[in-house]
């Protein structure tokens, strides 16, 4: 069984859609608080339709609570993590997935925190996408918006910049602001992991 982990998800419809995908693939959904919605949300259940009651889902108070309860706090456990981020050098198709691995996705507004990416640089992976100049006609306004939301992103003491020096993350000057939405990204990576682990009907 594969595991989908949502770090502080904010949009109930995304979590509902991912929950539905987990049900039909036999994956376990893990939600790390704080959540941006109530688990009783009508939007959550509408997106999950009738599947939500069949979902294997666990909620955790924090990232550390998740690591401890899932037995991932040691070096062997950390090797089961795949942190999906726009800031990684390695792509998700370059990763090797095994039954029981955890695919971790960050919150919709800001992704996985840079402190976690810097702590686990070898566990970071990305989905290849077109550069902003190709994908976005209004990229300048998006960049201004991102800078307003994350004014410290270019600081020299940023964990991201320290990792860039080591070659673990994409140069911040090449940082993508456009991306798939959370439920699409989770589906893309989950189905590659399912293919590699021999899910019925897929050629490994």
From TrEMBL:
Annotated organism of origin: Collinsella ihumii
EC number: 2.1.1.207
UniProt superkingdom: Bacteria
Keyword tags: Cytoplasm, Methyltransferase, S-adenosyl-L-methionine, Transferase, tRNA processing
Uppermost EC category: transferase
Alphabetical list of Gene3D superfamilies matching this protein: 3.40.1280.10
GO MF annotation, one: methyltransferase activity
Residue ranges annotated for the tRNA/rRNA methyltransferase SpoU type domain, each copy included: 2-132
InterPro entries: Alpha/beta_knot_MTases, SpoU_MeTrfase, TrmL, tRNA_m1G_MTases_N
GO biological process, one term: methylation
The protein, known as: Putative tRNA (cytidine(34)-2'-O)-methyltransferase
Residues binding S-adenosyl-L-methionine: 84, 106, 127
Family: Belongs to the class IV-like SAM-binding methyltransferase superfamily. RNA methyltransferase TrmH family. TrmL subfamily.
Transferase is among the record's keywords: yes
One Pfam family it belongs to: SpoU_methylase
Subcellular location: Cytoplasm
């Amino acid at each position: 069984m594969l595991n989908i982990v949502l770090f502080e998800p904010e949009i109930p419809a995304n979590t509902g859609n991912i929950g539905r995908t987990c049900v039909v693939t036999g994956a376990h959904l893990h939600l790390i608080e704080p959540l941006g919605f109530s688990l009783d949300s009508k939007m959550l259940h509408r997106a999950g339709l009738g599947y939500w009651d069949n979902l294997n889902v666990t909620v955790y108070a924090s990232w550390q609570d998740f690591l401890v309860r899932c037995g991932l706090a040691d070096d062997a456990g950390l090797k089961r993590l795949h942190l999906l981020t726009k800031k990684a050098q390695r792509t998700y198709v370059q990763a090797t997935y095994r039954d029981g691995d955890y695919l971790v996705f960050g919150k919709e507004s800001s992704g996985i925190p840079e402190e976690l990416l810097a702590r686990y640089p070898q566990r970071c992976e990305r989905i290849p996408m077109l550069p902003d100049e190709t994908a976005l006609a209004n990229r300048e306004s998006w960049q201004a918006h991102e800078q307003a939301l994350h004014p410290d992103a270019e600081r020299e003491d940023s964990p991201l910049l320290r990792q860039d020096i080591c070659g673990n993350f994409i140069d911040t000057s090449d940082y993508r602001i456009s991306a798939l939405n959370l439920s699409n990204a989770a589906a893309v990576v989950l189905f590659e992991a399912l293919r590699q682990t021999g899910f019925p009907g897929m050629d490994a």
